Amino acid sequence: MGCFFSGRHAEPQQVLALPGSRARLPCDLGGSFGASSVEAAPSLITWTRGPAATEPLYSVVRSPGVALVQADHRMAPAWKDRLHFSVSRGTLSLADVSPGDAGLYVCRVRFQHAPDRMSRVQLVVVESPGNPVLKFDPEAPRGIRLREGQRLRVLCEVVG
Hints:
The strands form three sheets. Strands 1, 2, 4, 5, 6, 9 and 10 form a seven-stranded mixed β-sheet that branches. Strands 3-8-7 form a three-stranded antiparallel β-sheet, with no helix packed on it. It has a two-stranded antiparallel sheet with strand order 11-12. It contains no helices and twelve strands. It is rod-shaped. The chain has 160 residues and is mostly beta strands. InterPro entries: Ig-like_dom, Ig-like_dom_sf, Ig-like_fold, Ig_sub, Ig_V-set.
């Protein structure tokens, strides 16, 4: 097991997503990797959910001499139709986000000849508020007409 470099911030990067949308979770791959830098590219990239997770949601396994874009991409069966990793952007895309997807995601990047890296991303699923409900004071008199400019007190409740 190698040492992990966690980047500039100890706190996880926060990503906001609406239910049903696509969330893009960034991972620090440590640079760009062209054809001339095949050996400098990561040998393993893993994404897990939560800091103590043992099974990866998604992994990219690169054999020596193989370009990162041609590496073997593997994902957990339960996430098969929802995950995609972009090597060029270093992002894990999560399709059709739901409130149950909220939480901490961890990307670990292993290199052959450089310190390992770790990125932490907190996915926050922002739920739209419900429809507003107007409530009137049951004690207030009914059937009163108001003139323009007169005050009317209305209580409005929104959940979400």
